[in-house]
Protein: MFS transporter
Organism: Pseudenterobacter timonensis
Amino acid sequence: MTTSSTNTLQNKTDAHWSGVFAMTLCVFVLIASEFMPVSLLTPLAADLHVTEGMAGQGIAISGALAVLTSLTLSSLAGEVNRKTLLLGLTLLMALSGAIVGLASGYLVYLTGRALIGITIGGFWSMSAATAIRLVPAHRVPRALAIFNGGNALATVVAAPLGSYLGATVGWRGAFLSLVPLAIAAFIWQYLSLPSMESKKQPPSRGSVFRLFRRPVVATGLLACGLFFMGQFALFTYVRPFLETVTRVNAAGLSLILLATGGAGFVGTLMVSTFLNARFYLTLLTIPLLMAVIAGALLLTGEHVRAVGVLLGLWGMLATAAPVGWWTWIARTLPEDAEAGGGLMVAVIQFSIALGSTLGGLVFDHLGWQSAFGLSALMLLGAAALTSRTSRQGR
């Protein structure tokens, strides 16, 4: 047998695509669970006898636990088989849906939301490391794109699905409907994921932050963080922009947001091709184009068709970008992908919170133009740091 034939056979043998799709189903249920409360806050708050603001804290607590878990899981898990760990996190996701759906009071509801936060942090911190084990190196961007396809699809359907289920089976039924999907994801992963033994010598507790000593890691994570800050400084306030500046009606608003989410799903399917061809150029081009879109929105904010097209392009680029950054973790830290993934989750979660907060302050006090301008500046900064990261990476 020739060397080429041997390599081809090895690549086919090593590729566990069924496991990739099983994890994608897990991502879909995970993201749907994370954002389900958004469309159910009113009935949820009324039933639990709390304010809508208190009910919304269920999203905040899941984010906080996601950050904490992402920074500690790699050290705490030690030598636990990673397949076992992923299956445990999937069961935790099912348990979260059951606890929230059957919650007798506010504290029980928060407990359920805390469990989904642990799952979010654990799963995403392990995603790059898992992709490396499931498929050959040159297929890792495609595997990560498929993972994020589940993310994009859930982002599109979570709010309307939650609203529909809330109206038909109640908010409790909406959460409980996710439990069978989580169990299906557990069974599929159990059957399709290979055994993934951990390293014999787990990294020390300080290993996550030790990664910052490498200049390429520090610069890359800063670029990634600035990108997400710029993205959410604008996108968090798209609805009030569309309602007060573009002046769309309720049907137009739903259509534009649905188109934005749908374009994001397409973006995740396409981006791996560009990453394989020109990795850093793709990673650099995305924030540059998004900065241009932010500037174009400043000029065309009152024109519905132009805004719809621009936001569609924004959604395509913004949803594709995480695939690039997770691929960067896999390429830059192939031997430390779990620790790097944990650090990446923490950076992204913190940057989303900081970007949306700064964007909100500017939006309220200086107007939407200033918020969109701030977003463009952050995205240009992210592009500049990405360029520096590429030079350090070489």
